[in-house]
Design brief:
The chain has 486 residues and is α/β, with parallel strands linked by helices. It has an 8-stranded mixed beta sheet with strand order 1-14-2-3-13-12-11-7. The protein has a 3-stranded antiparallel beta sheet with strand order 4-5-9, with no helix packed on it. Helix 1 crosses helix 2 and helix 2 packs antiparallel against helix 4. Helices cover 40% and strands 13% of the residues. Strand 12 and strand 13 form a beta hairpin.
Amino acid sequence: MSPRPRVAHRQLGRDHRRSTLRVESLLGPQRLRAHSTRRFERRWWLLIRSLGVVIALIHFSGCSSWLPEMTPFGAVTSPDVDRSLNGLGLHREMWETNGARCLKPLKLSPRLDDMDVIVLVGQSFEPPGRVARQWLEDWLAADSGRTVIYFGRDFNADIYYRRQTLPELPQDKQQRGAELLALRETEELNQRVRQLSDPTFCGWFYLDTHQPRIEVDQFDGMWAEDEPQLNSLPGSWPVRVALYPPDDARRKRKRPSWLGKPKAANPLKPASQMADDDEVDEAFSQWYPEEIDSREEWDAAVREAPDSEILLAGQDGQPLVFRLTSERFYDSQILIVTNGAPLLNGSLVLPLHQRIGELLIDACLPARRVALLAFNEGGLMVSNVPEKDNRAAGLEMLTVWPLSGITMPAAMLGIIVCVSLLPILGRPQSLARRSVSDFGLHIDAIGRMLYEARDKQHAQTAIADYFRKVRGESPPAWLESTDSSE
């Protein structure tokens, strides 16, 4: 071991002992042991989950895994939540190891009144709309200790995984892998330009799309001071689209050039958002640049923005995680994360993002119920009607994943078996017996006896006698040979 790492190791040991003594003085020895045990179990469980994702990535390390994912970005429902690189399966497991229960609602409704944390998963580059932001701020103000987490759409764990595994491809496949990586990056850029072309301000943060891509591996801020080992953990945080807090320095930023100018109508955008009408049961709240269409509205939105506090930043002052507070939602908070690197499956396999993800969750504790709410380019559904619980009750649970993966094929197999065993003409029935007085039975018996005798001449003679004596007719033509022989 080189001298410098040895000194750093001793310094980390001293810091750990000092932090342990401070915690012991507050909790006591028994509670400290219980606290350490829970923390140890939580880390081991997260490590096991991360190793599972790593094994899956290694298993699919061929060129076939370089095909684009068919699952949507930011999947929160099964089975995509665990199998997608851009899913939040590991993030959900981290909440559950901290004692929280995760739900997956579909809209902002009174059903969320029992939640402690709402994680907004934007599946497009557009931030939440004005009506949705106002609803969330009212939800924060309704009770203390609540948190809203929003992370930007800039980071794509699928592309991040491709960059990390490109050198591991066979030599003859690396060129094709580089081409597929360039196609994925181009597709992502086209989507970002289509949905969000210019820098803007949405009330919670400034969104800068003109910043060059950077890799942050040295950190500053409150969390970096409390966790100095962040700068030594493997991994880096890529940032392309930056989210800045609405602080005094940002309030003096130059207004966008398009502000106050008429814009061409876009048929893909709605003419207006959800109306401020209590009679409307539900509607979509979608962000669009025209929600601030004058310099006066821009200045008013900047003045009314919440106060900000940077929790984690890069070595050049680039904000990565910051907290928003306001008198409007006293004792609650909004956590803005520049992108999903510390939340998505494909990046949480790295120790750096794991630790930042833990710090993000620790900033929200204690939390008993967490809502993972995904929304796409269509916006967030805001409703005055409580959302029905989509969890199955009774036998309906057999139709919900993961039980549906067993019960539904079994049910189809049962239907096929029943159809194959079903008689074509219905239930079988017994035919009525013929009466013993039926003369036809006598004819059948004579015919069988003549057949069993195997004497053709005798049979023909007996039949000819039958026609002459019983029926009084001449024998048929095919018996004439018999008559002539006689």
